[in-house]
Amino acid sequence: MSTRHQKKIAMINDLSGYGRCSLTVALPILSAMRVQCCPVPTSILSSHTGFPVYYFDDYTDHMEAYIEKWKELGLTFDGIATGFLGSERQIEIVKDMIVAFKTPETKVLVDPIMGDHGVPYATCTPAMCSRMKSLAAMADILTPNLTEACILLDLPYNDNEGDLKEEELEQLARRLQLLGPSSVVITGIRQGKYLVNVLAEGEKEVYFLKRLAVGEERPGTGDVFSSIIAGGCIRGWNLRDAAELAADFVKDCIIRSGQLQVPVQNGVCFEELLGELCQKAKD
């Protein structure tokens, strides 16, 4: 029997029972990446908020007691990843958790979910933005979309993403690194017929990962992407290799979802392709 240490990641995000996003994406994707996913729920929803009706239960008041029991058990994690956080208090709880559990070997991935297409979410108040900057400073890997990158840097959003030159995108990534994270991935920038991800890893040359845009935009694809990034990086992969796999897998999932006529609000049917992800994640 192999004595190889299996990696564990604490995944902080909401749990939506239907719609394929957040923890219901992270759990199977990280498992396919051969990483144990240990969830910390921030809220419980019957389905994601893209549906016309849904049940919502805020878990903020339970998070500290939940995390305290992990401390009492003396648990350790190879990675800590954050997704949607709905309040300033949740951000502070997560920051305290990172301080309590981070070791020199622990990778922290922050997905600063605050808006999309130039529009901040309703929860993204000025106070929330300030708190999110302080959380981003604790990240090893930061994965904002273009809207979130602009919010973090107090910059106006350019509605014409396709007009942004590589030099401008590189400058954005480098400025985000100055907030604290050593690695940054600006995700899902639409440029003509391509989707571009901008990768800055330490002082290495900034890399532009391009994939042909396919199908319709679907909820949960960012969760698939960031989960593969997190799983790969805590297993010791370099950022570029993890991002290449994530981009390819998301594209394949979108194509397959279209073939099966899965409604857009139901996300991507990644279950159809998990076997392939397992194979690609082999040592």
TrEMBL record:
This is pyridoxal kinase. InterPro entries: PM/HMP-P_kinase-1, PyrdxlKinase, Ribokinase-like. One of its GO terms (molecular function) is kinase activity. Its EC number is 2.7.1.35. It comes from Enterocloster alcoholdehydrogenati. Residues 74-259 form the Pyridoxamine kinase/Phosphomethylpyrimidine kinase domain. Keywords: ATP-binding, Kinase, Nucleotide-binding, Thiamine biosynthesis, Transferase. SUPFAM superfamilies: Ribokinase-like. Gene3D superfamilies: 3.40.1190.20. PANTHER family: HYDROXYMETHYLPYRIMIDINE_PHOSPHOMETHYLPYRIMIDINE KINASE THI20-RELATED, PHOSPHOMETHYLPYRIMIDINE KINASE.
